[in-house]
Design goal:
2 copies of one chain form a homodimer. Chain A has 172 residues and is mainly alpha-helical. Chain A has 9 helices and no strands. The radius of gyration of chain A is 18 Å and the shape is elongated. Chain A binds chain B through residues 1-5, 79, 82-84, 86-91, 95, 98-99, 101-103, 125, 128-129, 131-137, 139-140, 142-145, 149, 152-153, 156, and chain B through 1-5, 79, 82-84, 86-91, 95, 98-99, 101-103, 125, 128-129, 131-137, 139-140, 142-145, 149, 152-153, 156. The structure holds a DNA duplex (18 and 18 nucleotides).
DNA sequence: GTCTATACAGTGATAGAC
DNA sequence: GTCTATCACTGTATAGAC
């Protein structure tokens, strides 16, 4: 529903928890709730995406990223909250968190590709294109009500990574 | 600000038009205002993007699309309202309009590429990837506060189209 | 056509009963 | 900790003066 659309009325209706209880748990109100949701998202990505990319074996980490990304976004059945926040005025309330989410993902992916033998320029360009394609794929899948848009996007990206690494590590 | 964030208070503050006048012009309230904004967007895209792609000389129409897209989105300084609507519950109020915006763009682009000699499967895949990359590029540019993300995206797409058509129309 | 005045539901937030 | 009651305020919407 977005930040503005997620009113207390909606939250109480869908959770069964009254406003009083919500304010007891989150004295900072809606802003705190959203911040903690974003924190939870960040923790998931650090553990399941960024750290494997940063420390794991490059090819395995890359394969892991595609499957985990597909899993997290339910094969296109779910949208990225960070991306949705980025598109309206909500961005200004959570600028640092939103920016870090994307830059860290791109940076981790770039590093992984370079450890796999890719050139720095090409790795950076691919990481940017991959992260932006994931967001665009989720958006388009929801817009046209067809999850296969997202799964096709992920497949194209994986194939494109294969090509990139094959060219940079030519067989002899 | 998104649909929910764009309250009457904001609209009157930013336009200087009172609520009474707004309801005189738009008896249907905010929903009608949004619908007419979407209609205006659609008309712009029909005239400046879809029709040139559908009827113009393929290579010129393609080049025209990149420049017009860059112009409309102010080189990444502006976000796509249709895309923003697609990501939250607003989508359900304007489903048909949102879906048509994207499907018509993809269809027009696919047709143009095929008239330029591209294979149907590759043309369809490229059109999907292009439309989704434009949305993702706008989102990421705003998220990391760097318009160059969008201009780079557009450049990569144009280059990718060149490659696609060069492969399908091999020089002899 | 524009404005002011007003209605009334819904908003985020607080206090206090249990 | 949970709830209900209540707050001040903003939201959409309407009526009527100019």
């Amino acid at each position: 529903m977005g930040y503005e659309g997620a009113s207390f009325g909606q939250i109480t209706k869908l959770t069964g928890i009254s406003k009083g209880s919500l304010f007891h748990a989150f004295p900072g109100g809606k802003e705190q709730m959203a911040a903690e949701v974003l924190l939870g998202i960040d923790e998931w990505f650090v553990k399941n995406i960024y750290e494997p990319l940063e420390t794991g074996a490059p090819n395995a980490a890359l394969a892991h990223m595609w499957t985990q990304t597909d899993k997290y976004f339910r094969s296109g059945g779910r949208v990225c909250l960070v991306g949705a926040f980025a598109l309206d005025a909500t961005r200004d309330h959570f600028q640092g968190t939103i920016q870090t989410y994307f830059t860290r993902w791109m940076h981790a992916l770039t590093g992984c590709l370079m450890r796999a033998g890719a050139d720095a320029t090409e790795a950076t360009a691919f990481a940017e294109q991959a992260v932006l394609s994931i967001q665009g794929g989720l958006l388009l899948a929801r817009a046209v009500n067809d999850q296969t848009v997202f799964t096709r996007t992920l497949k194209r990206l994986a194939a494109s990574a294969e090509t990139l690494l094959a060219c940079q590590n030519p067989p002899r």
